[in-house]
């Protein structure tokens, strides 16, 4: 089974701490998939792959991104935090022959989000933030909001993330801002 193969291989490419995080994201994604009517198997596979390249050497990440995603990653070549999603998408295809674009998209954009992200993509994005091992201010509020209303919970998390990045003087990826604005537009249309 693909999931078992990925789990087995993960043990060789990530630390025990990262592995526990990935398993937490897998379980959270599975719960959210059930709640919001998404294929649970796809959610589990995407969750297992989301940080597959997270602990890879930055130079390897840069090489993969320069060769496969040059336009999307050129400005972020010094930020493994951004690059590892693209690397994970690349490895999903290369190592596991995954061609399902929903899974690839979910892995690629799990850190930044993006406007028009699929339901599976949204689930992986937010599961990464709210898995049980995550402890940060207002995480419980984000969890509660996500289980009440997925888009509303993600919008709240996005706003919190942007506020935090502004406070510490970090760069904010434009895809995160675009996703937040898109979710606001969707919320207005629903009212």
TrEMBL record:
Coiled coil where? none
Look up the EC number in the record and give it: 3.6.1.41
Alphabetical list of SUPFAM superfamilies matching this protein: HD-domain/PDEase-like
Reaction catalysed by this chain? P(1),P(4)-bis(5'-adenosyl) tetraphosphate + H2O = 2 ADP + 2 H(+)
Which one Pfam family would you cite for this protein? Answer: HD
The HD domain is annotated at 18-133
List the Gene Ontology MF annotations in alphabetical order.
bis(5'-nucleosyl)-tetraphosphatase (symmetrical) activity; metal ion binding; nucleotide binding
State the UniProt keywords alphabetically.
Answer: Hydrolase, Iron, Metal-binding, Nucleotide-binding
Q: What is this protein called?
A: bis(5'-nucleosyl)-tetraphosphatase (symmetrical)
Q: What is the lineage of its organism?
A: Bacteria, Fusobacteriati, Fusobacteriota, Fusobacteriia, Fusobacteriales
């Amino acid at each position: 089974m693909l999931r078992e193969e990925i789990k087995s291989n993960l043990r060789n490419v990530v630390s025990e701490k990262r592995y526990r995080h990935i398993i937490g994201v897998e379980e959270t994604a599975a719960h959210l998939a059930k709640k919001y009517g998404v294929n649970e198997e796809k959610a589990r596979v995407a969750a297992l792959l989301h940080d597959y390249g997270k602990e890879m050497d930055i130079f390897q990440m840069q090489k993969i991104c320069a060769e496969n995603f040059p336009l999307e990653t050129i400005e972020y070549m010094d930020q493994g935090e951004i690059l590892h999603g693209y690397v994970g998408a690349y490895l999903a295809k290369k190592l596991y022959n995954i061609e399902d674009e929903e899974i690839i998209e979910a892995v690629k954009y799990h850190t930044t989000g993006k406007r028009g992200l699929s339901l599976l993509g949204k689930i992986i994005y937010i599961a990464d933030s709210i898995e049980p091992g995550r402890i940060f201010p207002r995480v419980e509020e984000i969890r509660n909001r996500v289980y009440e209303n997925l888009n509303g919970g993600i919008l709240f998390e996005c706003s919190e993330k942007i506020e935090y990045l502004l406070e510490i003087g970090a760069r904010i990826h434009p895809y995160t801002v675009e996703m937040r604005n898109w979710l606001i537009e969707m919320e207005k249309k629903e009212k």
